[in-house]
Amino acid sequence: MAETRRNVDAGTKQVADLDAQAKQARQDVADTQEKLADTNTKLEQATQQRETAQQELKSVQEQLDQTKLTLTTATASETELGGRLQQMQGQIADAQKQLTEATDASTKLDAQRKQLEQAVADDQAKQQSASAAADQARQQQETAAKQASDAQAQADQTAEALKAAQAKLTDLQKQAEDQQKQIADSSAARDKALADLKTAQQQLSEAQGQAEQAIQAATVPNLRNDFDSKAGEALSGKPGVTVAGDRVIVQSDTLFAPGGTNISAAGKQMLHQIAVTLKAVTASLPPDAAWILQVGGHADKQPGRISNRDLSAARAMTVVKALEAEGVPPGQLVAAGFGDTQPLDAANTPAAYAKNRRVEFEITQR
């Protein structure tokens, strides 16, 4: 831009020279040839000025292209610079118009030079043409200087606007980074909370399992004691019924005929009382309570028509079916035949044999 001002100053000086030459031409017509030479020199200088103006225009155009490239990479907040860019383009178009006018003026000066060469005698007309050309050149130079000043002001405004837009973009980028960090921190906190919740749920599940196991472990002993106590009370006074340790024992001779597997009438009454007692003591238990009533059949060691183990197993199964018929859930009953392997009395006497022939009812863990 400083070079443009220097060119404008040089143009101003040239205009002054043209004025001086015009005055000298009016004073001394005889020096017309010398004035013609001066005019040629001025024409060459004007041509050089035109080339310089073209170079300046090219430089301004390159700056405009660079400004366009910079503006296209800015954020949406810089769109307001579009109007200013259009203004600069209009100013450049005006500068181009001025350049065209300067070119036309140069052409006119060239025509004047030819006229001077052809008709030196017509000094007055040539002097008038030179004066008019000088006035026009002066006006064009003033206009070019104003255009250059306006272009510089617009360039300064564009630079300031671009700087402000860049600062705003930097601030927006920082805000975005801060938000991303907050999201990352929130995600980490959420993951930790989920992990803690999962651990707590697992610990709760384990505690619930342990509690259930403890409840189940306590359920069977309590149920066994309750059943033995109430069954003993219900069967109190019945022959062949005893409560020993953790089981209710009923002599087989009370339930079955010797060597048989059919339940007697008295045996059915006893099994009815056992079923009623069992259902009463288990009524408050949850359906998934892990208890079971084991019905164990036992025989003496005397040989019979079938093996003692088969006989004891058949009697245990018959009792289980009778309890099922009384409404005891089948899933809570199991039959087992032990034969003569677990005698209560090892003596070889009728009393010992009768004591060993028995059916035992025992609540156990399922």
In terms of DSSP E residues, the strand content is: 5-15%
Tell me about the biggest sheet?
5 strands, mixed
Number of domains: 2
Q: N-to-C SSE series?
A: HHHHEEHHEHEHE
Oligomer: single chain
Strand adjacency order, main sheet: 1-2-5-3-4
Residue stretches low in confidence (pLDDT < 50, at least 5 long) are none
CA-based gyration radius? 63 Å
SS class:
alpha+beta
State the separation between the terminal residues, measured CA to CA.
103 Å
State the shape: rod-shaped
Helices, by number, come to 8
Please give the share of residues in helix: over 70%
Count of strand segments:
5
Mean pLDDT: 81
What does this structure look like?
The structure is a single chain. With about 375 residues, the chain is α+β, with helices and mostly antiparallel strands. The protein folds into 2 domains: about 1-180; about 220-365, OmpA-like domain (60s Ribosomal Protein L30, Chain: A). The chain has 8 helices and 5 strands. It has a 5-stranded mixed beta sheet with strand order 1-2-5-3-4. A hairpin with a 2-residue loop joins strand 1 (about 240-245) and strand 2. Helix 1 packs antiparallel against helix 4 (about 125-235), helix 2 packs antiparallel against helix 3 (about 80-120) and helix 4 (about 125-235) runs antiparallel to helix 6. The mean pLDDT is about 80.
